[in-house]
Write a structure and sequence with these properties.
Elements lengths: L7 E4 L11 H14 L1 E2 L3 E4 L5 E3 L1 H9 L4 E7 L5 E4 L8 H10 L8 E4 L9 E2 H5 L1 H6 L9 H13 L9
Parallel strand pairs: 3-5
Antiparallel strand pairs: 1-5, 2-8, 3-4, 6-7
Helix pairs in contact: 1-2
């Protein structure tokens, strides 16, 4: 189940698109993220190449917002199926990763990745994603937690300051 996987903060500049995006959709997403100050759904990326499986528009929204980090699920193609949605394009894991590495992008919505379950809702605060110092200052055990989990860990630390000293 995807909901049981950790969400990783990955530098936006390291995530590699393999498809173009629709600018108006990316702008709408960026506006929503900025207004709500929350990042709700992680981007799915291939674990080793960081090629986007799902989330090209979210990636572009992050770039437009000049975020430093983006919440990601790190996945493998042995657990994810992919199909072409447009005729005339070779779509398979090897070709997707190749396009991500070379910058030879598919047209928007050319690939369709099928996942075993829905993505988790992460609700990460946008300021966390804007400032690398905030993320690096978090204890290692909280770097991949949701905002709720981080607030709970912080509250526990405030109530029992000596209990969590080994986490930093």
């Amino acid at each position: 189940m995807l909901c049981s996987l950790p969400i990783h903060f990955v530098q936006v500049k390291r995530v590699r698109p393999n498809e173009c995006h629709y600018s108006n959709h990316a702008v709408t997403l960026a506006d929503t993220i900025l207004r709500e100050q929350l990042w709700r759904i992680p981007i799915a990326v291939e674990r080793t190449s960081l090629a986007v499986m799902d989330g090209h528009h979210r990636l572009e929204a992050a770039r437009r917002l000049r975020l430093k980090y983006i919440p990601c699920l790190l996945l493998d193609y042995d657990c994810v199926k992919v199909d072409a949605t447009r005729q005339g394009y070779l779509v398979n894991p090897h070709e997707i990763v190749r396009r991500a590495r070379t910058g030879e992008l598919y047209p928007p919505k050319t690939t369709h990745h099928r996942f075993s379950s829905p993505f988790p809702i992460c609700n990460i605060s946008v300021p966390l994603l804007q400032d690398p110092a905030v993320i690096s200052s978090l204890p290692a055990s909280t770097r991949f937690m949701s905002r709720y989990e981080i607030s709970m860990a912080t509250a526990a630390d405030e109530q029992h300051p000596t209990m969590n000293k080994d986490l930093t």
